[in-house]
Amino acid sequence: xxxxxxxxxxxxxxxxxxxxxxxxxxxxxxxxxxxxxxxxxxxxxxxxxxxxxxxxxxxxxxxxxxxxxxxxxxxxxxxxxxxxxxxxxxxxxxxxxxxxxxxxxxxxxxxxxxxxxxxxxxxxxxxxxxxxxxxxxxxxxxxxxxxxxxxxxxxxxxxxxxxxxxxxxxxxxxxxxxxxxxxxxxxxxxxxxxxxxxxxxxxxxxxxxxxxxxxxxxxxxxxxxxxxxxxxxxxxxxxxxx
Amino acid sequence: xxxxxxxxxxxxxxxxxxxxxxxxxxxxxxxxxxxxxxxxxxxxxxxxxxxxxxxxxxxxxxxxxxxxxxxxxxxxxxxxxxxxxxxxxxxxxxxxxxxxxxxxxxxxxxxxxxxxxxxxxxxxxxxxxxxxxxxxxxxxxxxxxxxxxxxxxxxxxxxxxxxxxxxxxxxxxxxxxxxxxxxxxxxxxxxxxxxxxxxxxxxxxxxxxxxxxxxxxxxxxxxxxxxxxxxxxxxxxxxxxxxxxxxxxxxxxxxxxxxxxxxxxxxxxxxxxxxxxxxxxxxxxxxxxxxxxxxxxxxxxxxxxxxx
Lengths: 242, 308
Fold this sequence. Notes:
The complex is a heterodimer of chains A (about 240) and B (about 300).
Chain A: H1 7-19, H2 22-44, H3 48-74, H4 77-82, H5 86-89, H6 95-126, H7 132-157, H8 161-179, H9 181-185, H10 188-199, H11 211-234
Helix pairs in contact in A: 1-6, 2-3, 2-6, 3-6, 3-7, 3-8, 6-7, 6-11, 7-8, 7-10, 7-11, 10-11
Chain B: E1 4-13, E2 16-26, E3 29-34, H1 41-48, E4 56-61, E5 64-65, E6 76-79, H2 91-101, H3 107-117, H4 133-145, E7 151-154, H5 163-178, E8 182-187, H6 190-196, E9 199-204, E10 207-212, H7 214-222, E11 226-232, H8 235-243, E12 248-254, E13 262-267, H9 270-284, E14 288-293, H10 298-307
Parallel strand pairs in B: 3-8, 3-9, 6-7, 7-8
Antiparallel strand pairs in B: 1-2, 1-4, 4-5, 9-10, 11-13, 11-14, 12-13
Helix pairs in contact in B: 2-3, 2-4, 3-4, 8-9
């Protein structure tokens, strides 16, 4: 089998993701976003500025990276931890195929649980006024792809992937990114905002990074992380050996 | 007919040498890899299974390097020691997934056959999370057998199994060996290995200590000098009588009254000495208060083998 996608690997991965306790977080965060959206709309009516604050401040800055951490690291970390990855590795399946399949699943799950709710919340908040709902959903989608690759790599190289991922997502993306100028240039959130800026009405969304640079960086990080994860998996020395 | 050749293989982790210049060939039939815990058995099996690169030397399957060679898994079935195995699946789903990963033309039929072989078809629709240790082990076996490999590698397969499950698995492995498959299993229990394996490889502290059939290994193990700590109502009288017999090689009298006080006896003929001691004590009218082997741990048995 020379294709880059293996349906069995995909099935095992998404069943693991949606079957464990992590699934609760996968469902609760988007649920929270929708509750906030409905509450805000009911209490203060449709308002573009509030919509921008909720979608940019909570959905893209916090929810997308968190879901990305859970889906990305969860797509491979627990298997390496408990040793069950042996059953994938001891097969005539190319290691890059395993990684690429898991990347597709992690990204898909992140899109479904973050980009889709973002779109929905946007419509609830202000009925897609100034194209905000679509713009942020596009940003969430591209961010999902890059996060998927980054956190999958993290799950492959460290046993503390969730912690490291959370620190990155919360400290770097949410906190640092909004306080320190330099950090913003190196933030998946800002890169994806560059696309949102393009989609939304003029001036409704702003990014620190220009569109060409943003696209280039998103692509580069995604490809490099996926490639490196495949390489790591090829020479994975299983934990728990003597 | 498949042979795994291990050629001058060493493997170290940082400064720790786990496997030290081992050379052996594993051919068809059942081979037991015997050694105390931490001897390097798992490291060796890891290299045979392609999960670890040898630091030096080569591990090959009919001449083809196993490390970084996914195609080798068409011929190898692996039963890992660790428990992790997709607990959220049913046993059948798990074995079918393994069959699909092997790219078998009819994964369902192959899974059914494998589950029947390990007598687990009755529980195939239960989730693995609900299985007992022995059932998990059998489903692991089914997943390793599903593509009918010519080589089967099992790391401590009998750990935690009850006697009945142990018998069943032994029977199964014996059958696999008779069918001409190359079956290798590791264990730190001599009795386990000699019941099942026609051929035994002993590994101690990373070194290849002995190789042969179980009679040879057993003889090496029982013929070694045994050390005993004996306390009695008259240590010196007992010592004098015992040293007169050629089954003892040396006796040290420790009259210090400390925790190790008593007679430290080195016996060279195990069987003879075990008959001699009670007879001499009875004839002398000496009461035996303590008779305890002071080096019966498996590690000391094995370290004797290495020195031999």
